[in-house]
Amino acid sequence: MGACRENCADKMEQFLKRCYYHSGQYNSEEHFAELDSKLKEKEGASSNRLFYLSIPPNIFVDVVKCAGTRASSTSGWTRVIVEKPFGRDSESSRELTRSLKKYLSEDQIFRIDHYLGKELVENLSVLRFSNLVFEPLWSRNYIRNVQFIFSENFGTEGRGGYFDSYGIIRDIMQNHLLQILALFAMETPVSLDAEDIRNEKVKVLKSMRPLQLEDVIIGQYKGHTEGSISHPGYTDDPTVPKGSITPTFAAAALFINNARWDGVPFLMKAGKALHTKKLVNLLYSKLIHYVLVCNWIIKALDFFDNYKTHRAEIRVQFRHVPGNLYRRNFGTDLDKATNELVLRLQPDEAIFLKINNKVPGLGMRLDRSDLNLLYSARYRKEIPDAYERLLLDAIEGERRLFIRSDELDAAWSLFSPVLRELEEKKIAPELYPYGSRGPVGAHYLAAKHNVRWGDLSGED
User: Fold this and answer.
1) Do residues 180 and 115 make contact, with C-beta atoms less than 8 angstroms apart?
2) What is the dihedral of CA 170, 176, 180, 185, to 10 degrees?
3) Residue 352 near residue 83, CB atoms below 8 Å
4) 20 to 30 A from 403, CA-CA: which of 86, 180, 298, 421?
5) How far apart are CA 442 and CA 452, in angstroms?
6) Secondary structure of the chain: what % helix, strand, coil (to 5)?
7) C-alpha–C-alpha distance, residues 459 and 339, integer Å
8) How does pLDDT run across 353-362, given as a tens digit for each residue?
9) Which residues of 275-313 are buried (b: 16+ CB within 10 A; e: fewer)?
């Protein structure tokens, strides 16, 4: 359940009274016909039906066929939410789309990417298009590079079965990070209508330079012991095949070949078992001891879940000030004199702008300070979970945060050639210690494009 919700107990009780369980086989039309009869007992004269497919992708089509032919609403709408993965590459994704469209129209299919429901992602367009201070700067003329960063401070931990067949590029980069990039870089849409927004996102994806293998770095975490703290490597996980070369980390440099963004590096990186505070490592090691000694597994896992961290942020690094009068005050590191806009999607949602500022005193000493909007301090109201927003949108028929089929095809077209090359050549990932900052190759990739990873500066 996560954080305590307002009046959660009362609302949950009301909700559970309206929940029913019906058992059946995914591929049985007879069982879906029974479900249809059960639903009609509870529904009124007019009914709408929303099917949520949070199931293995190999049975998507079976369920859609049975639901579409035997359990669709006859007096209202029928919609289907499809949880990722949407295929493994361009070919399988197109085949899945073709199969789904045998039984559903495009406007009935809601491909859900929960990252698009996050508050800061929703606010991205508002920040840009309704603030005069940002919109004129949103181009190659002022922006030096843009970074999309996702990191987890834990590994697969016994859940490597699904992950090993997909890897970090398919799991995070091809969908979550690329969708955010498209929203960030798109031109001003004609309106806030879903189709107008999705049209602009597709244009961005189709304008992207083909991704080259030399602009991709992959890594895999290995076991690491520091003092009394020990963490197993990826291939030490019993649910992961021995000798697996599936990447748990990836970094990529992408470029958009249009007038607004020509030459601006868009860097992505995503990884598991990355740097975390030593306090969390200590708590983890103590917790493992607690589990082994006491065997209170449920309580222990609930306790540890609070210390698992997904970190996601967008970092916009602006160009150097031409002829900066104060360059001497920053010494030789001129990067410290550049402005940076950071949107932290999670945890602790925030927007902050790094600006140059004079330190009070008689001398002329400059400092880089933050103009900080921390959501928890500014807005006392609870921030809705991403899934809450997206499920409500699906019920209301609002499609702007869901992925259209041509958008999905363009996203796969960008990553499929590189994924195929990595797998055909069996390129081994660079190993990095559990709890480190990732493979060294990621730093070389950034340096190749004259970029520094902003999350490694230690300033945040």
Assistant:
1) yes
2) 10
3) no
4) 421
5) 10
6) 40, 20, 40
7) 13
8) 988 887 788 8
9) ebeeebbebbbeeeebbeeeeeeeebeeebeebeeebbb
Structural domain ending residue among the three candidates 113, 140, 162:
113
Please indicate whether residue 22 is annotated as part of the active site.
Answer: no
* Residues 104, 134 within the same domain: no
Is residue 7 a part of any domain in this protein? no
212 vs 206: CA distance, rounded Å: 16
Per the structure, the complete domain to which residue 37 belongs is given by 23-113
Domain match, 272 and 244 both: yes
Catalytic residue among 22, 31, 176, 449: 176
Same domain, 93 and 128: no
Span of 20-34, 92-106, 187-201, 220-234 with lowest mean pLDDT: 220-234
**DSSP 8-state code for residue 174:** I
Is the CB of residue 419 less than 8 Å from the CB of residue 143?
Answer: no
Task: Report CA torsion sign: 116, 119, 124, 129.
Answer: positive
Is the pLDDT at 283 greater than 70? The verdict is no
pLDDT of residue 199: 95
Torsion of CA 95, 98, 100, 103, to 10 degrees: -150
Distances (CA, A) of 215 to 138, 178, 266, 422: 24, 15, 11, 12
Q: How far apart, in whole angstroms, are the C-alpha atoms of residue 123 and residue 129?
A: 10
How high does pLDDT run on average in the chain?
86
> What tokens does 396 get?
């209301």
CATH code of the domain containing 431: 3.30.360.10
What gap in Å lies between CA 283 and CA 67, rounded to an integer?
Answer: 47
Domains contained in the chain, number:
2
CA distance 46 to 7: 30
pLDDT at 230 over 90: no
Listed in sequence order, the residues at least 6 apart from 47 whose beta carbon sits closer than 8 Å to its beta carbon are: 39, 40, 73, 75, 76
